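We modelled the chain as a single entity of 1012 amino acids. Its sequence is:
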Amino acid sequence: MRILSLLLASAALPGLAGVAAAAGPSVLLTAPAEPSAITVKGVGDGQADDSAAIQAAIDAAAASKIGEGIVFLPSGRYRISRTLAMWPGVRLFGVGKTRPVIVLGANTPGFGEGLGTMVIFSGFNPSRPTPNGQPFKVPVPPLGSVPFNDKIADANSGTFYSAMSNVDFEIGDGNAGAVGIRFHTAQHAYLSHMDFRIGSGLAGIYQVGNVGEDLHFYGGRYGILAEKTSPAWQYTLIDSTFDGQRDAAIREHEAGLTLVNTTIRNTPVGIDIDEGYGDWFWGKNVRFENVSKAGIIISNENNVYTQIGFDNAVARNTPVFARFRDSGKTVAGSGSVYQLSRFTYGLVVPGLGQTGHYETSMDMKPLRALPKPAKRAVRLLPPVASWFSVRAGGAKGDNITDDTRAIQRAIDTHDVVYFPAGFYVVTDTLKLRPNSVLIGLHPDLTQIVLPDRTPAYAGVGSAKALIESAKGGAAIVSGLGLATGGINPRATALLWKAGVDSLVQDVKAQGGHGTGLADGTRFDPYNANHSSDADPQKRWEAQYPSFWVTDGGGGTFSGLWSPNTYAQSGFKVSDTSTPGYVYELSNEHHVRSEIVLDNVRNWEFLAPQTEEEVGESQDTIALDIRNSRDILFANFHGYRVTRSIKPAVAAIRLINSADIRLRNVHVNAESGYSFCDDGGCGTYLRVSKFPYENSVRDATRKLDVREREFAVLDLPGAPPPAAVAGPAVEKLEDGFYSIAGAAVDANGKLYFIDRRFQTIYGWEQGQGLSIVRDQTLDPVNLTVDRSGNLMVLSSDGPKATVYSFDPKAPGDDITLIAPTPVKQRRDARVAVPANFWNNGEFRDQLDVRTYRFTTLGEIFARDAGQAKANEYVSPDGSVVLPAFRVYQQGPANFLGWRFSDTLDTYGFVTAKPGERVFVSNATEGKTYSGVVSADGALSDLRPFTNRGGESVASGPDGRVYVANGQIFIYDANGQEVGKIDVPERPLQLLFGGKDKRTLFILTHHTLYSVRI
């Protein structure tokens, strides 16, 4: 009835026929007591153009010392005629008895076709100074600004704290290209309590990031249209609905889409995953009503990046629950009303020590009627009328005054305590009552700060909290930053013992990346070489966990960010069986472990993300699970940055634990960066050689899981089957730090590099191991020319360096090789990377004429097929290394962080122009064959097998060997015919020995071989 009444009401509004027009209920009936807020001074009658007024308020909020701020938009209807830019760290809240509505009138110029965006969340404010004082050139201006503005940078992996809440969007007729919001943001960014009445438009949201809550989409071609998020991790949508979309409620790929309590109705397709792509999709309590074609369309079948799961989905009048795009297979519903308590599709790993297989699994049953919707996953905050400001209670928030007593007095005497923007110094634990509520609107601008060397937190002792909840109860902490300093060894930011109905939301453990300081600067957690803090008295890993749930604690935890390197872990749960629900936890940059569970039951983590930095996190475990049972992790992303330089064993460690359910696991090490150099500005995605070697290590059972991408694993799972007889693996040498970059000469002798120690080794049968060179010349990859000279690609220099030497000659003589224009060389062999990473999502892949996305295969063919203008030629002219573009992160001399396809690969394959080689495209998890050109381009790319990893080698037996956790053997037609089990994860494969029938296998620490 509500939808029908909205539709009838809309019919009387010119230009808005068929669009639900009534505003959603306001959750901020009055403006909070926020002295720093900028209030929009618009007309708000739906007729006047309020574009300039809203933008002026956003600009004014961003003019603060740190460039962040809070904007209030009063009730009203605000017509805009051009794109509004939301600068980084600005939050806009609607206030008033009715939700304000931002309106795009009928036939607004610039929005009628292609892509026109009402609001773009930006990653850089052009009015702010740049670090080097030079004018900032936007690397890739995003699509859709009206009129087009190349000064608006897309939000990115460093866009924190941006948000909009309690504001509706409305698109009038004649705006077929219109989108409400572009939201390509990172941590602590969210959209909440919003209705999108899309009408004739393209979508409510194009591009997504972090969290959406209580969002409702009416009409439009799509509710959400999205590619991969800018930081390449998950997007979580909670307590939301879609109704009446013309093509699909959600169309996306690689968004890490996590739906919680979401209803989709009156549309042909619920979730449409784009052709040629997969996604890490997880849905909990999802409802489908009157979905005519398919609840979900699954693309990219039998691929590791396609991971689909539902935990309790119900449907009515949805005859096909799942449709597989490539094969045409369908999963039909069970009657007109049915329930799937469980549905999974993707790579299933049977247990520890095993590789996976593809499988669809479900529990479906018919129902007489749909059950009642589940209660809200995330509680609403109390009404503003009940908020007591700590400023009214005497707190100053000036980063000087000790506000401990004033804040504690407010907590003791008021149920709901509001913190206006400010830095509130405290020197003792703030203790909550069972039903206490603490609220801020911006966790970077509103921080509770513990000064360094606070006496109560000094020395050896048990954990002492900055904030401690009462045991049990339904307390709430929302929108605050908690800063425990760098020299307070007993500190924990939040000690949580509250009950199942409690809530911690939008709270940041300050002290690491993204920390704003009271003087308007941004905290830098590093010294010059990223090996420690700049202040030697601030010791990494010197405090208790930042967020610690214990002693029977539980509840809901949504949109948290915990990157404080001074803490021993970011989020710890211990000694509790009270249910806990964690949504979109970003937990990063710790020394020992990110998320720790110890003696825990009945918890689920949906879309947890961990990130390990090159300095502090070289040995970090992402998930450390001890003595625990009945735990679900779904849509877990365990990420190590591209800059990583040290191998790490496993993302997840289990000790004495069972009934651990892993769903949709993504263990990766790729990252995107913006750059500007003499070749222009752009964005790129690079991949590290140092992701976690294994996804799981069970320390109790002494077994690993090598698959790093999978949909289902129940631990411990089925025991490994008996070993199958296969080629015997021989250990040749061990004790290395991390070896790769190998090549063999004409006589089959092996050469390889231990990059950490800048050492080039040789190995041959009968002679064993030798050190060829160990000069500090940053060698990365090798190839050998016909004369037996080694040709070395070095990471030294802003564009990298290539040199050559005779490995038989003594001394340190080398020949530098300068790049020269490419020439046709009939007899020369061309060296190309054996493995690639080409995703391209940092430039929109949407064709705004057809609304089709370029597929990953097309991106790979486009990038791998690019001719190189220059080349490096060996001294005898027999080997050519095309000059792939090298990207530089940071200043020219900064830590040697250089990236290119040739630097990133584990090694080269060589062939004469016109010959076909095998290469892995790790972005797709596929192996291809392609024809090598003299200029390094690969043409006529043909998919060979749907498994691709670290490297691939063609054998003398006509078979193809692919390293991806183990070594998989394929016949000439791409059919798997065998497997070689290696004691460690194989990284580079190549054939050598005098008869070229020895398969050399390089792992990080050991050199193995197999006779073929």
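As a brief sanity check on the tokenised model: The mean pLDDT is 93. The helical segments are 2-10, 51-61, 404-413, 856-864, 901-904.
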